[in-house]
Amino acid sequence: KILILDFGSQYTQLIARRVREIGVYCELHAFDMSEEDIKAFQPNAIILSGGPESVTAGDTPRVPQVVFEMGLPVLGVCYGMQAMAAQMGGQVSTSDHREFGYAEVKVEGDSKLLGGLSDRHDNEADLLDVWMSHGDKVTAMPEGFSLMASTPSCPIAGMADEKRRFYGVQFHPEVTHTLKGKEILDRFVRTIAGCDGLWTSDNIIDDLVDKVRAQVGSAKVLLALSGGVDSSVVAALLHKAIGEQLTCVFVDNGLLRKNEGDMVMSMFAENMGVKVIRANAEDLFLTRLQGVSDPEQKRKIIGNTFIEVFDTEAGKLKDVNFLAQGTIYPDVIESAASKTGKAHVIKSHHNVGGLPEDMKFELVEPLRELFKDEVRKLGLALGLPYDMVYRHPFPGPGLGVRILGEVKKEYADILREADAIFIEELHRADWYHKTSQSFAVFLPVKSVGVVGDGRRYEWVISLRAVETVDFMTARWAHLPYELIERVSNRIINEIEHVSRVVYDVSSKPPATIEWE
Ligand code: XMP
């Protein structure tokens, strides 16, 4: 396995994802991980990430000395290379030429990492397209190192000490713009560090099944199943691991998408034989939401009511000692990365409620070590349908934040129909998976429409579709006009009480993805 020390680059998680894609397990830890912990982890190799700081400044992050003393292969990326150079006796200077973006590096010498690589036609030139993002650069290599790559503005773009198996690259192999990036990482973790590609969905499932069984024994486990990717994969996995010992509670809050509750029940309860209790709590949620129009207030009410309903259902079960949750790796590592203080912390500002602390359960979190793309692959390997595993995310408060202002059943019913038409047409036009999140929003304003000879004042539906990688920034999707037209016609013709459809052309920031 590989240890990745994080110096705060926004790309650090990408390094981990690439290494996992290659089939090798890795973990990400903050650069100040203790010597003890580093040794206890027993890595086969260590990767030092990039970072926003300058090694030429005084008290910036340093590589724990033990990293260079364990006899392991080390790969420094960007800041990681600079820190390695500075700490081993080389020189780093602040560059007057800032390189950012695409660059062309020339492969020098015949290192194990880059030797013979080329992404040019017929391999006629030893050039590589790479992604650079740095101000500082290494200006003198430490003793024992030789040149591995160069660019005109960055003569030492890569250095290698083959004897000690230390490598540094100024560019970012983890970014897809570096065309041969994955091959470079593959050479490092498999050829140089000698790791086997055993991290595959099937092996992960076997491993997790064993772990869950060891953790819970013959005890009973409870899971709040939402129908989202993470809790669905947990359900499928636990069902495989402990079968009847698992009970899921699915809370229908009346704010779900069209047919969602029935779909969850038929998939898990009927098809897979998972024990699922469906709590039909629509009336309770809608009563609590009556007269409330403040979005944060609505979120709170929905969150608290969820906990209450879940609690009541859980209370009816006997002898449950474990609570399963769909926590995934990014939820866990955020705290480690934020230790640098400088890290680009990607934190979703709203993870659903959380369960009350006085619940006397031990947690089962089988997906804790997995990235979202790994969770999805696991879902497929466990037999979940593609469309469910690759479904767009849906917020915990559901339609509650897509009906602006006060939530009413009448509005929710209209919105469900409109949303279903939009999603159906997106699928039909092969656009669903080209967007990251798409949905309809109910606007409680009356707008005029002429029907026959009469003027009718009816509600407005807005369509929202965005493209995003991390949901922190997003661009409105440039859907074809014909598609928007078809959706609009269908919504206005098929749904009573809707007179107008608009398309949201706001990007984030400043407009958020949801309307509330
Ligand atoms: P915004 O609207 O903040 O949304 O751009 C970013 C992502 O978060 C989702 N979202 C929520 N998820 N509870 C959730 O579980 C919420 O209250 C909530 N609000 C927004 C949103 O759907 C998008 O994917």
Automatic annotation (TrEMBL):
The keyword Lipoprotein does not apply. Its EC number is 6.3.5.2. The keyword RNA-binding does not apply. The active site is at residues 78, 172, 174. Keywords: ATP-binding, Glutamine amidotransferase, GMP biosynthesis, Ligase, Nucleotide-binding, Purine biosynthesis. One of its GO terms (molecular function) is GMP synthase activity. This is GMP synthase [glutamine-hydrolyzing]. It comes from Gynuella sunshinyii YC6258. The gene is guaA.
